Amino acid sequence: MSKYKLIKLEIKDKDSLIKALGDLGFSEGNGGLEVANGHENNLSLYGYQGDRRAETANIRIPRHRVATAANDIGFAFDKETGSYRAIISEFDSGDRKEKRAGSPKWQNRLKQRVSYHTVSKAAKRKGYRVKEVATKDGTVRLQLQSFR
């Protein structure tokens, strides 16, 4: 049984986190992503054998959507910091398959997508149009245009 680790992500906006997970292929509905109401961490996490774990989350990616022989991945809201922490098993957070959900590379892509959605949301509120530009090295630049 693989132990879960808590990973600080410093993600504060739930909507941006959900959109970022959608960008990475985990959308709500069809068993792809489960989201609790509000900020309650009341979704149980399950191990690769279907065993219910002690950890609970506000957002859960079911194990069958992560990979074969994987554990659920969760995102728990921390009321003290007002941000989300990832709950990923040691097995799923390993470097074996860099593109696998839970891996360090996947975590970095998730943070990048959350940042994109957070900045876009704030820029649009201020009247800017946002354009995403990917560079050759994999970084993403945002171009903001004002129509004032």
Could you describe the 3D structure shown?
- Helices cover 24% and strands 34% of the residues.
- It is an alpha+beta fold and 148 residues long.
- It has one domain.
- A five-stranded antiparallel sheet has the order 1-7-6-5-2.
- The longest helix is centred in the C-terminal third of the chain and has 22 residues.
- It starts with a strand and ends with a strand.
- The mean pLDDT is 86.
Question: Which SSEs are present, and which pair or pack?
Answer:
Blueprint: E1 4-11, H1 14-23, E2 34-35, E3 43-46, E4 52-57, E5 59-61, H2 63-66, E6 73-78, E7 83-89, H3 104-125, E8 128-134, E9 140-146
Antiparallel strand pairs: 1-7, 2-5, 3-4, 5-6, 6-7, 8-9
Give keywords.
148 residues, alpha+beta, two-stranded antiparallel sheet
Short description:
The chain is an alpha+beta fold.
Taken together, the total number of domains comes to: 1
Helix share of residues?
10-25%
Radius of gyration: 16 Å
Strands side by side in the biggest sheet: 1-7-6-5-2
Please state the average pLDDT score. 86
Biggest sheet architecture: 5 strands, antiparallel
Distance between the termini: 57 Å
Summed up, the helix count is: 3
- The topology string of helices and strands comes to EHEEEEHEEHEE
Strand content: 25-35%
